[in-house]
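Write out the bound-state structure for pyridoxal-5'-phosphate.
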Amino acid sequence: MNRIRQQDSELWDAIAGEIDRQRSGLEMIASENYASEAVMIACGSVMTNKYAEGYPGKRYYGGCEFVDIVEELARERAKRLFGCEHVNVQPHSGTQANTAIYLAALQPGDTVLALDLAHGGHTTHGMKLNHSGRTYHFVSYGVRPDTHRIDFDSVAALAREHKPKLIVAGASAYPREIPHGTFAQIAEDCGAKLFVDMAHYAGLVAAGEHDDPVPVADYVSLTTHKSLHGPRGGMILCKAGYAAEIDRAVFPGVQGGPLMHIIAGKAVCCGEALKSEFKQYARQVIDNAKTLADVLANDGVGLISGGTDTHLVLADVTSLGLTGRVAEQSLERCGITVNKNMIPFDRRRPLDPSGIRLGTFALTTRSMKEEQMHTIGGWISEVLKAPDDDALAKQIRGEVRELCKQFPVPGTSCNN
Ligand SMILES: *Cc1c(COP(=O)(O)O)cnc(C)c1O
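---
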């Protein structure tokens, strides 16, 4: 990295600014995490130089003997981690993984049943502007207005009515554990295949802290940068019978050459997640989120579904007379990063919705525990109750900095 400083100070200044931002602030965006130093070194390695279209042993280029080892290591570790029959580690992102699954499972115009975006779904679950929504016919299910849990009566009714070819389970902003078996039963009853998008909670599944979709789903996708604190990227897990069609859908279906340096990073992060410490990490992620939810609820912050089973807390800040945008901005100036988010049955619009989404992956990677969640939850509710109080914001910004000094961000030292 010093080479960047010498050669390109304009760029270095931005990287240095980002290092300082990550070190001195509390990262509570539920989809973010910190990669380890080993992951970063793998991603910055010579593996970036190699073209390797195809798969290990079946490449379109020469010189692939070492990248083959890297991809086999990533595949073998992912298979052990998730207990699946086949894995494709090449998707450049979660979105690419999902696009490839749709390409393998569907024809344009086919009907798909997925969670409504405003109820916690993802853009790749049929948003009109996304490739998924433009190519396939998506029908949405939602959560119940009273419990904010998935409305399985309505999922079953919609499945009977629309006869989807594919049912999508999984979410970006759903605080509760998803019972995949219930989806599998509904899919079986209507003759649909089941695709579980565990982008957020894959690490919790790997650690045995969340219901496991692998035994019941036809296809499973995940990201490696959220719960697994690996490099930015995606993966697809499936039964052996779908292996050939999934591999063809990833390459040449939706991608060209694989990012071998990122696949090296995926091998490192799966290796890390196979260690026993990772189970403790996942347990602590959930304990931290539950503690945070309790503190906020006790302070009068409305929580969607009343709490959490996972890493994620969705707060309705209109309970405090705020909007999501104001809440996000008032926390940001205290060094607490969250994102504004739609809540189920939101009466506001996506750019200024009613909620904020918080998560504990990143803080837990920094070794924070329940004690810190009490402190941080207290700061959040203080700020949300007085968003215009400049003196309070300044005081909490200082306290956040002090706390951060005690909990180093892994991986940032190799950037200096
Ligand atoms: C994050 C996420 C994705 C996609 O991730 P990208 O890597 O940003 O493309 C897909 N599905 C769900 C449910 C997600 O939360």
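---
The longest helix spans residues 276-298.
The radius of gyration is 21 Å.
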